[in-house]
Amino acid sequence: MTIRTALRQGQQLLDDAKIAVPNLTAEVLLMHAISHERTVDRAWLHAHANDELREMWWIHYGRYLHERIQGKPTQYITGTQEFYGREFRVTPDVLIPRPETEHLVEAAKARIRHGERVIDIGTGSGAIAVTLALETGARAFANDVSAAAMAVARENALRLDAAVTFALGDLCEALAADSFDVIVSNPPYVPASDKANVQREVREFEPPVALFGGEDGLDIYRRLIPQAAHALRSGGWLMMEIGFAEWDAVRAMLAGWRAVEMLPDLAGIPRVAIAQKE
Ligand code: GLN
Questions:
Q1: Which of 107, 72, 111, 110 is nearest to 92 (CA)?
Q2: I want to staple 119 with a disulfide (CB 3.0 to 4.6 A). Which of 44, 141, 148, 200 is the partner?
């Protein structure tokens, strides 16, 4: 079996299983299978289309195809996801970073000044904290309730050479009053009542603790916003990703804050809530 045939067969299997972008997925999975033995990119793959597939490649590739067809996200199979131009390690203990979350990073970058204290609440893979540490020169902190998630975040900070201080913690509960200039968070915000409508890949494979924010999705904002008001200095910024149709409710919770603002994502959906402490 040649590389070309393997790609065709993989694509067909994925297509039959109604997996999105079967062509690219087959390539990514085959590259991952080969990568255990040698460095490989798409150019190499296509330049070697007539090469025989080694037995070990075929064994790995077959397993990855099977996993993907069962619904496992490609990123959990390869263990990586790109975010803001950098490669992050991901495991099923963390949410796979989404491109929409880059809007939160942009909003934070525009407001953070060099040397300020910034904390990412519920950091997961560490994507936001690591990116802000590297992009802004802030003194970056991050926490998570999940020890397993924090281990992944630590590894990402180490691999990307970002100075981030991590702690286990539930939202801003353990933070001292007036101790931060900026608080950012992409909290779990999917309504539990929406669970049946969530994509299979997300529902069955991503950590529920990173996804669901109670029955109406807003539970974490109800706790996070008052806690953040305590932990921020006067004039400090709170920036949070929000879910579909949640802006009106979140805006109402930000009564008493200054400069309350919303940024939409590329699809025009309200995505980032911004507010400044009085
Ligand atoms: N954006 C993710 C999704 O809808 C959810 C992320 C989150 O809850 N913060 O799949």
A1: 72
A2: 141
Encode the chain (278 residues) as per-residue pLDDT tens digits: 999 999 999 999 999 999 999 999 999 999 999 999 999 999 999 999 999 999 999 999 999 999 999 999 999 999 999 999 999 999 999 999 999 999 999 999 999 999 999 999 999 999 999 999 999 999 999 999 999 999 999 999 999 999 999 999 999 999 999 999 999 999 999 999 999 999 999 999 999 999 999 999 999 999 999 999 999 999 999 999 999 999 999 999 999 999 999 999 999 999 999 999 99
H helical segments located in 102-246: 102-111, 127-136, 147-159, 200-205, 208-211, 219-231
Point out the ligand 1 atom lying closest to the alpha carbon of residue 211: 8
Q: What's the 191 CA to ligand 1 centre distance in angstroms? A: 10
User: Quick one: which H or E segment has residue 241?
Assistant: strand 232-241
241 CA to middle of ligand 1, Å? Answer: 9
